[in-house]
Amino acid sequence: MKHFLIYTIKILIVVLLTAIALDGLYTYIFLQSENRGKIETVFNSEQQNYDVIILGSSRANNHFVSQMFEDKGLKTFNYGMSGGHLFEASLMLKLMIERKYTIKNVILEADLNLSNDHESEGISAKFLPYIHNSAVIKNHFETEKNFNELYYIPFYRYVKYDGKIGFRETYKIVTGEKTNALDNLGYYPLIKHKNGNMKNNIHNLNPLKRNKYYEEIKNICKANSINFIAVMTPMCENVVGMNYFDKVKKAYPEIHNYENVVVENKYFSSCGHMTDAGAKMFTTRILKDFFYK
Amino acid sequence: MFFNSIAFAIFLPIVFYLYWFVFNKTKSTQNALLIIASYYFYSCWDWRFLFLLVFSTFLDYYTGIQIEKGKSERDRKFWFWLSILVNLGFLGIFKYYNFFAVSFSELLNSVGLQASPILLNVILPVGISFYTFHGLSYVIDIYYKRIKAEYNFVDYSLFVSYFPLLVAGPIERATHLLPQVKVKREFNFENAKEGIYQIIWGLVKKVVIADTCATYANAIFDHYTSMNSFSLILGAVYFAFQIYGDFSGYSDIALGTSKLFGLDLLKNFNYPYFSRDIAEFWRRWHISLSSWFRDYLYIPLGGSKGGLWMKIRNTFIIFVVSGFWHGANWTYIAWGFINAVYFLPLLLRNSNRNNMDAIELSWNFNSVKTIVSILFTFMITCVAWIFFRAKTITDAVLYVKGIFTNKDFGFQYLDNERYNYELLLLIGLFVLVEWNSRTKIEPLSGKKSMLKLALAIMAIMAFGTFSDYKEFIYFQF
Question: Which positions, given as ranges, span the membrane (chain A) (predicted)?
Answer without folding.
Answer: 12-31
